[in-house]
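Hello Y.,

Per our agreement to keep a running log of every chain we model this quarter, I'm adding this entry. I've kept the format consistent with earlier entries: sequence first, then predicted structure.
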Amino acid sequence: MNYGEIKKCDIADGPGVRVTLFVSGCTNHCKGCFQPQTWDFDFGKPFTEETEQIIFDELDKPFICGLTLLGGDPFEPQNQRALVPFLHKVKERYPDKTIWAYSGFTLDGHLWVDGSHPRCEVTDEMLSMLDVLVDGPFVEEQKDIRLLFRGSANQRLIDMNETRKQGKIVLWEGN
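Predicted structure for the entry above:
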């Protein structure tokens, strides 16, 4: 897996100050995407143990609230396969920090549906480690800069902990 950027003090992609990893590779190609260079799976640099350590060094800081995964799309199968072992380390080392992920794929239309792209053998495992999933493609015609932590009105902020508990999609209410 490659990545394009690591933001060390991000306040736009989840609550509080966060570390944000922009992975490379996306097949959605949303019109108006703010990071179209990340559509290319070969864009940026390889994600290595050194990359992990850069992120851990930032997550060690007490004012950092968590990690956010963006892209590209973290749920492209090759990205999921690379991210799952890393996310296990994050959860183990930082159990009180939240993990958010953004995906152009929807939870109920793609990620939970057997046989659909990008669902693969590690999708459920990756979803199990998320606190919030922001799902749905960016739709330029529904762009609204007043929306909290999302770019277009069709995108949902899904509380994954409550979704797992209740067995149905529960939207995040900012707690």
